[in-house]
Amino acid sequence: MKFMKLGSKPDSFQTDGNNVRYVASELATDITINVGDVKFYLHKFPLLSKSARLQKLVAAANDEIDDEVYIPDIPGGPAAFEICAKFCYGMTVTLNAYNVVAARCAAEYLEMQESVEKGNIIYKIEVFLNSSIFCSWKDSIIVLQTTKSLQPWCEELKVVSRCIDSIASKASMDTSKVEWSYTYNRKKLPSENKTDPQWNGVRKQQIVPKDWWVEDLCELEIDFYKRVIMSIKTKGRVSGDIVGEALKAYALRRIPGFSRGVIQSCDVAKCRSLVESMIWLLPIEKGSISCSFLLKLLKAAMLLDSGEMGRRELVKRIGRELDEASVTDLLIPAPAGETMMYDVDVVLSIVEEFVMQEQNLEIEPPPTEEMQEITSIGFISDTSKLTVAKLVDGYLAEIARDPNLPLSKFIDLAEMVSGFSRPVHDGLYRAIDMFLKVCS
Fold it and tell me: Which domain holds residue 410?
């Protein structure tokens, strides 16, 4: 972790109880500054020489024949104010990724700019941020996390936007320029743990995987995570499949029960917001994210009653890649209050999307070579049709076990793929047989 030391004098701040701080000095203190519930007994001269705001507050206090001032709304509270106060006294303070943002916001509040005194704390903090913090992958993530409790100061000072750009730029860089020290949550490679059977005491240069940053970003709350991913996508140097891998890792980490297609012990509003954000962050490239993950996301969206637009978008995406799905993926529980076991309607919509790809192509053939390249995504191969036909047959066999399944839904789904040729129809016959047995 990067750090910077300011000042050279010994720290002479002392505590008297929980709510009193003072400077041990032969000179009597001549000002009391109240920060929240903490009283600071200090000296005017070192403070006023560097803080324009304290100059104004003390001037107002003198007019009222009072040497006590109040700054209850200073960002970062007593701890951040104390850093600034020690800087005024020339005492040693250490800034790092955990406290630098609070100190920066407090210094802005206290108006400790260069116009008040050259070499003031705002200038020094900015140098530290730009030359050290934003050059470090780990520190940039930590600093971004600390800004959450210091809004809107961090937005106005562009600390948040600078953190996001720093993180996105590093995630987008050529992996040949990435050092393993950038990451801090990844699992170590066998050679690093000295457990590689070919390890002979000589450390080999590691090949950095393209998704080296994925796990690290899972530490971020969804609001920051969303902005970082959007920035990464905007830069356009990270492929869609890596972005998809990042979203999958985040959902697995952040949504309880997601991997099993259920939602457990979750703040519903928070999880709903997370799922909706995941949907709109999905990369547009076909095949950039697995159909299985899309279906899990759809299950979560339905369980959490997410917005209709988001669910519709997922249905479209899944329909275009349905040949990659499994029967288990499609077994989506019916909404609460329904008599059926599974939500057959949503599967009908997904299969319809798959079938419509080719129908849409036949309506208006592409007039140019360029358009052919664009619309070729919608072409359905015979192999994909056969795969989906078998998938639907298998799905019908599963839902046929439900005694509350209407015959009309069974027929509608079977008819959707009736035009897809397949060498045998054994799967469909088994499904029909199962349905008739349950109904009899």
Answer: 338-362+379-439
